[in-house]
Amino acid sequence: MNQMWENLFRKSDAIEELQSILKSCYIFQDLSRKELSFVKELIHVRHYKNGEAVFKQGEIGVGMYIIGRGTVDIMVEDALIDSDEPTHVTRLSGGDFLGELSLVEENSRRSATALSVGDSMMIGFFRPDLEEIIERNPSTGAKICFRLSQVLGRRLKGTSEKVTELKKQMKLIAER
Fold first, then answer.
1. What's 44-61 look like in SS3?
2. Rounded to a whole number, what is the largest CA-CA distance in the chain?
3. What is the mean pLDDT of residues 37-50?
4. What is the rounded distance in angstroms from the CA atom of residue 150 to the CA atom of residue 90?
5. Bridge partners of 151?
6. Residues 6 or more apart from 50 whose CB is under 8 A from it?
7. pLDDT higher than 50, residue 8
8. Where do the domains of the chain lie, and which CATH numbers do they carry?
9. pLDDT surpasses 50 at 9
10. What is the pTM of this model?
């Protein structure tokens, strides 16, 4: 009898944990508790082992991932760099998200590989999930799309700034 109650409480804790993770993710921060509950019914939870690929560079992307627990390394294979080893770009951890471009760009290819470092729990939010939200609850879909566009805009701006800085550095090197 006690075992049954423990399982019920654990399930409730897991639901609260998922809702808390979603709420902490920038893309879902504007959602009400009711809207988060609706989104929670559409997400996909998956556990990854150490070294397992969440996705690989060149694959067609189907959605984004939120790191619920654990750590993920982002790696890039670059033909311009003469190396058999991929280049480490960054390390992401709990609450970070990745792959969001595939929510808005159909059939886009992954620009990097995401590898689990240790055991991790990821929340998948895929393009069909977003489309269903937009269809069934347009105001919730609009909130998510607005936040998503802010993230993509900020990342584009950051990339543009980095390209500009690299061009300046290359010009200085060429002038020497």
1. EEEEECCCCEEECCCCEC
2. 79
3. 94
4. 21
5. none
6. 116, 117, 118, 119
7. no
8. 2-175 (2.60.120.10)
9. no
10. 0.81
